[in-house]
Amino acid sequence: MCLAIPARVISLEDQNMAEVDIMGVSRHVSLDLVPEAHEDDYVLVHAGFAIQVVDEQYAEETLELLKELDIADIELEALEPEGT
Amino acid sequence: MRQERILLAHGSGGTMMRELIEDVFVHDFSDELLTGLDDAASLDIPAGRLAFSTDTYVVNPLFFPGGDIGRLAVCGTVNDVCTAGATPLYLSVGFVLEEGFPIEDLRRILVSMRDSAAEAGVHIVTGDTKVVEKGHGDGVYVNTAGVGVIPEGRTLSASHCTPGDKVLLSGTLGDHGIAVISTREGLSFETDIRTDAAPLNAMVAAVLEAAPGTRCFRDPTRGGLASTLNELASASGVSITVTETDVPVHRQVRGACEMLGYDVFQVANEGKMVAVVPADEAKPALAAMHGSPYGEDAAIVGEVAEGPPGKVYVHTAFGAKRIMDMLVGEQLPRIC
Amino acid sequence: MDLDGFRDPGVARSVIQAIHDTATSPVKLMEVCGTHTVAIAKHGLREVMPETITLLSGPGCPVCVTSNSDIDTAIEFGKQPDVIVTTFGDMMKVPGSYSSLSQEKADGRDIRVVYSPLDALDIAEKNAEAHVVFIGVGFETTVPVIASAIQQAGRRGIENFSVFSAHKTVPEALRALVDDPDVAVGGFILPGHVSTIIGLEPYRFLAEEYGVPSVITGFEPVDVLQGVYMLAKQVAEGRAEVEVAYTRAVPPEGNPAAVAKMNEVFEPCNAEWRGIGVIPGTGLSIREEYARYDALVRVPVTPPEPKEVKGCQCGEVLRGVTLPFECKLFGRACTPEHPVGPCMVSSEGSCAAYYRYTDYGKSP
């Protein structure tokens, strides 16, 4: 139940809608579930709705760490959220 | 032609039908070999074996980005004929029109067919039309049948694929299927993707000139590349492996497939050819494709091996192998 | 933002090596999301695992676990006069007791596939003389979407629209799995997109009450490998925690606004999971205040007596007790062309994924 893809918010529209871009394909989606999303944010799109904002910094950090995994046994605790 | 819409009378064989044929079909097709006066066309054919193909087009919507049912109907049959290694020559067209269908839309389709036929260098030489009651047709259904001639000594066959052969694909996958689905109710999204429908006979001729040992051609229409390769592997009793990263796909087509949960290997194409070619002729064949306006993105995408017979595999980006399975039923957008 | 890195073979190789180095003792890991089933099969990830790791598929395909009688009910809606049934594509080919939505459509019923429930609202607006029923299936990833659609129907004054709620929730189903003596799982690959909504907390009990490690995992090939690596690491270090691999999409609190909407429109109830039975508290029904958007209220139907197919082992497959190709019907009586049970027909059912992407069990 999990097909959601990252899309970039191109522009905000009224009625809590937005135009988003998925690899050059554009669609109108509802921001009802993520009203705080801004232009240029990346959001996860599922069934015509944005369901979460994608955190670019976490994305970069994760990739950096994974690339290094076979070089050094780096703890991934740095990525664990507070209070886990 | 005074009417704006097709009426049942247009199919009844009387004066209104005569008017439809003369003023609309013959006029718009404007083909010197099509007079509309004879029930059968009498034609000259060069020496060789006859290749003969037919297909019926029921696409909905009739008009989609970059094309329409008319262009599909001409290009589809031209392409089928040339997969036999034939030079396509003549087409027949058959129409089933729904009562109430706008004549203006019909004319758009006919002009599109005329232009596609001219581009392919084929003649529309005979045709037929019938009208059905409103509600009994989807606007228009088109059948085209095409004949061509295969030069002496040439036999292409799906059963000729041999271990070691290379599999070539003439361009990007999935354009047609995605262009059509972008217009469907309930699935709308905006994209620049247009249908790839095109007549490929010139390109096929160029490939055969550069690579006379070519085993076969196939156009990956319904069911996409997956259906085509599975058919070839079965017919020849070999296995085929495709290297995922070598397959050309437009970024937007990838995006649309991701959004809808589609497998791009199963999406329909209307202007692409798969060619199976002996390894030592692969480079010249590829160069011939690149020389065609419809083959700019051509690539060598896979290889034929011994077996297991009938199996098609994908070599994924991670060095793992998985099966490229055939479509069952139609692809439906999913959320899972 | 460049997300292609999560498909990068070079990055993948690094994680695969780390998995091999870490997973020194045998462990069974279960993924509970059909999208993970497909991702693993499509990218051939089983092949790159060390021998010590077995990847099992659990009941994570909400379409697969939809009960026969729910599908029969969906079909009954289609038989009512002036009703347009709208559904996600996933549901079309799943067999109910006697038929499927796809068969019904072939028989002339007005059944339409949509990508979003908002498309169903548009259909309702354009077809004022008909009543549009939306077949609501899905886990917590999808429920807030449906909840929002129902509320938007209210705002737009669309009265000829209702939802048949066959939705299910994941956490209590996981509890049923770990309680099941036949199921022996050493760690859970948790569904990334369900978690993007519900966050970490609902899974805590796995670690604290059952001592089972779990990792919230994304769906790109590198994401799945990272999830497996983190689980292997927990197992090797004797830890049992709820960790997040999919940090870019899952804040620990999930999406509280979406959860709030879900709870405004829906309330928990019992649900029958096909092949497993009733799992208390895992269903969602539409609250009283929104009864006018409840299809069971607006279009009362009586589905026929449900009927299960003999020999179908979907239940065991869904619990990871039987592997797809171990089912006696797999590849013989049950194939994608003529499926017996939902695992084979759903695009992300375990059996379909095995059948499509591997050689297991297929007759030569």
What does this structure look like?
The complex is a heterotrimer of chains A (84), B (336) and C (364). Chain A is an alpha+beta fold and 84 residues long. Chain A has one helix at residues 56-68, and strands at residues 5-13, 17-22, 25-30, 42-46, 49-54. Chain A has one domain (5-79): SH3 type barrels (Roll). Chain A has a five-stranded antiparallel beta sheet with strand order 3-2-1-4-5, with no helix packed on it. Chain A is elongated, with a radius of gyration of 16 Å. Chain B is α+β, with helices and mostly antiparallel strands and 336 residues long. Chain B has two domains: 8-150, 2-Layer Sandwich (60s Ribosomal Protein L30, Chain: A); 158-323, Phosphoribosyl-aminoimidazole Synthetase, Chain A, domain 2 (Alpha-Beta Complex). Helix content of chain B is 29%, strand content 23%. Chain B has helices at residues 15-29, 69-83, 103-120, 175-181, 201-210, 224-236, 251-260, 282-290, and strands at 49-57, 63-64, 67-68, 87-98, 123-132, 140-150, 166-169, 216-218, 239-243, 274-277, 299-305, 312-315, 321-323. Chain C is an alpha/beta fold. Chain C starts with 8 loop residues before the first helix and ends in a 7-residue tail after the last helix. In chain C, the strands form three sheets. Chain C has a five-stranded parallel beta sheet with strand order 2-1-7-8-9. The interface between A and C is large, with 41 and 63 residues.
Q: Short summary of the structure?
A:
The complex is a heterotrimer of chains A (84), B (336) and C (364). Chain A has one helix at residues 56-68, and strands at 5-13, 17-22, 25-30, 42-46, 49-54.
